[in-house]
């Protein structure tokens, strides 16, 4: 009996060790990932390990504030994400949640921080400024997935990255019928070259190649449903299924940086490390060689660091506006040792940057860039309080320079970087505490100024509130918020802030008076606009007006004179004006918000006591 047990134990199949993804999934606790179905999908099963998944992702805070999105409607590039389940580096919540979806399904996943970028040792690096410590909503649309059973791996490849749109691919490809008859072959001479996403190979073949890695060899089974016409295989009639033998020789990473085909980064030599974890961070010191060419008929080289800079590389800090925007955007997506060819439009090259004398205005530029290496930002861990505040002041001064140059986004990023670092600073006494609090307030107000310059009035107000909640008498906070209120058309709130300035500090009377005068002028300007817009309405006496409509930049304003009992009150005793006004959000739409409530007072003065904004 014992011998039989030993034999059974000896021949029992060995248990496969858990994969890294399986180990990660064990960290999921109940309630940390929740799913809500927004639109049902089709089919009987969802994707599984080895499948390529194609999906759109929109991330919001629990309050509905947009964080980032792949959709062009929400500021993204409009290019969906492609991952391979079990191979690609993915957020834990998506790794667990997407397999529960069907093709075409839209679902909302609520994730705790440990399910997205807040996971310990998360394999995916968080974008700059990402709220990785917050609960977030991930809206996922599963566009397509390609079943693993349609591909058989003959030889494992190298690395983890797979080609996707618009990568350039080189592969040995041959095609046979199910009976083994050769249809076509590209296995001699040069590998077949195609651009991913341009229908240059059959759809099913492209989808499967999108799950492969460099040097992998596989047999791919494509049914007639996915056998589309292409330059590789122009004739597809008569084939129910085709077997493709593919060896993925190489692919070149091509990135459409803006999503509109104008700024293109093409990797021509691989770098060292894993993308994107080993790419330069914000505020890194970068060392690059580059050659710049004007893309005209002559394709004239206007600068080469190896020739014009005595062979010395260019050194610059990222995030400080020291190179053209398109140049920096591309370098920050490079690995050390990588060489890339960047084609850049004028507005991201030298039209908004000091232009070299030999570069004409409006020129399209091509840079060949080699990232030699970079130094990461200084780690503040272990620094004493004085050193930390010195570092903060240096970064703030850089932000001030960028602000004066009109580079408000870059300036804001500098101020916000220091504020993030301040979350880990603990002053040791009252003197340090006061200095720290004053500096933090100053940074918040600098951020508010950037928001205001960028036309983000509400964000500016919210940022000022962070200062005023702790110190309601903060004069500069009151002034900055008052200016933001005025820009937003909230004139009464602005007036209250400017008056409060004078109340808490009489020395600010001249500044507050000037602000109030500016506010008065703006109110008058808005009132004039209102009168001009509603000129026909104001030409009549109140009793003569039965109904009047005006279309103001898409806002429909309908005013009615009601019967005497309706004007003075409804049956429930409430004022008719109050009971029929739209919600505040509806009132403040379009530019009409600029003269509301001034416009309302105009209506009342004319006897029009009921105004509805639809």
From TrEMBL:
Recorded family membership: Belongs to the FKBP-type PPIase family.
Cross-referenced SMART domains: TPR
Region of interest (Disordered), residue spans: 1-28, 561-586
Placement of TPR repeats on the sequence: 475-508
Domain PPIase FKBP-type, chain residue ranges per copy: 50-146, 166-252, 283-375
UniProt KW keywords: Isomerase, Repeat, Rotamase, TPR repeat
Taxonomic source organism: Glycine soja (Wild soybean)
EC number: 5.2.1.8
GO MF term list: peptidyl-prolyl cis-trans isomerase activity
Domain of life: Eukaryota
Enzyme class: isomerase
Bias kind Basic and acidic residues: ranges: 1-23, 561-583
Catalytic reaction(s) noted: [protein]-peptidylproline (omega=180) = [protein]-peptidylproline (omega=0)
Phylogenetic classification of the source organism: Eukaryota, Viridiplantae, Streptophyta, Embryophyta, Tracheophyta
Name of the protein this chain belongs to: peptidylprolyl isomerase
């Amino acid at each position: 009996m014992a011998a039989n047990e030993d034999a059974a134990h000896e021949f029992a199949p060995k248990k496969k060790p858990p994969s890294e993804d399986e180990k990660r999934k064990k960290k999921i606790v109940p309630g940390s990932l929740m799913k809500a179905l927004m639109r049902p999908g089709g089919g009987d099963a969802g994707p599984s390990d080895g499948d390529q998944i194609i999906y759109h992702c929109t991330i919001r805070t629990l309050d509905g504030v947009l964080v980032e999105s792949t959709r062009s409607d929400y500021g993204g590039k409009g290019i969906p994400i492609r991952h391979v389940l079990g191979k690609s580096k993915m957020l834990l919540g998506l790794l667990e949640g997407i397999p529960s979806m069907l093709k075409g399904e839209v679902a909302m996943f609520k994730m705790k921080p440990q399910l997205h970028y807040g996971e310990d040792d998360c394999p995916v690096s968080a974008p700059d400024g990402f709220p990785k410590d917050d609960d977030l909503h991930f809206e996922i649309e599963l566009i397509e997935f390609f079943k693993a059973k349609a591909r058989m791996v003959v030889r494992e490849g190298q690395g983890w990255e797979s080609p996707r749109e618009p990568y350039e691919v080189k592969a040995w490809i041959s095609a046979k019928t199910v009976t083994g008859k050769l249809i076509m072959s590209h296995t001699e001479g040069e590998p077949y070259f195609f651009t991913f996403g341009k229908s240059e190979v059959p759809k099913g073949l492209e989808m499967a190649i999108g799950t492969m890695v460099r040097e992998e060899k596989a047999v791919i089974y494509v049914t007639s449903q996915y056998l589309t016409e292409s330059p590789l295989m122009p004739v597809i009639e008569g084939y129910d299924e085709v077997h493709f033998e593919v060896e993925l020789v190489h692919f070149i990473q091509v990135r459409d940086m803006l999503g509109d085909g104008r700024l293109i980064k093409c990797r021509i030599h691989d770098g060292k490390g894993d993308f994107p974890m080993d790419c330069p961070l914000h505020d890194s010191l970068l060392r690059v060689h580059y050659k710049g060419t004007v893309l005209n008929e002559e394709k004239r080289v206007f600068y080469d660091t190896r020739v014009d800079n005595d062979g010395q590389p260019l050194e610059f800090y990222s995030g400080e506006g020291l190179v053209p925007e398109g140049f920096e955007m591309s370098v920050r997506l490079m690995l050390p040792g990588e060489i890339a060819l960047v084609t850049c439009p004028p507005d991201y090259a030298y039209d908004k940057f000091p232009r070299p004398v030999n570069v004409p205005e409006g020129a399209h530029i091509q840079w060949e860039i080699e990232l030699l290496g970079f130094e990461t930002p200084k780690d503040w861990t272990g620094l004493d309080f004085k050193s930390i505040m010195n570092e903060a002041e240096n970064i703030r001064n850089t932000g001030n320079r960028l602000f004066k140059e009109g580079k408000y986004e870059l300036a804001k990023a500098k101020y916000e970087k220091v504020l993030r670092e301040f979350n880990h600073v603990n002053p040791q006494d009252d003197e340090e505490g006061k200095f720290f609090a004053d500096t933090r307030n100053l940074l918040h107000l600098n951020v508010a100024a950037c928001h205001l310059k960028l036309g983000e009035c509400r964000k500016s107000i919210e940022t000022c509130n962070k200062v005023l909640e702790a110190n309601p008498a903060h004069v500069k906070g009151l002034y900055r918020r008052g200016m933001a209120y005025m820009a937003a058309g909230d004139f009464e709130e602005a007036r209250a802030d400017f008056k409060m300035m004078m109340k808490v500090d009489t020395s600010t009377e001249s500044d507050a008076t000037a602000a109030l005068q500016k506010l008065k002028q703006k109110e008058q300007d808005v009132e004039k606009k209102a009168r001009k817009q509603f000129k026909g309405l104001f030409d009549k006496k109140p009793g003569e007006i039965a109904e009047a409509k005006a279309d103001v930049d898409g806002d429909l304003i309908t005013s009615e004179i009601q019967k005497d009992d309706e004007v003075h009150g409804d049956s429930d005793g409430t004022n008719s004006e109050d009971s029929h006004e739209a919600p505040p959000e509806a009132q403040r739409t379009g530019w009409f918000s600029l003269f509301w409530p001034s416009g309302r007072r105009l209506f009342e003065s004319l006897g029009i006591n009921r105004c509805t904004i639809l």
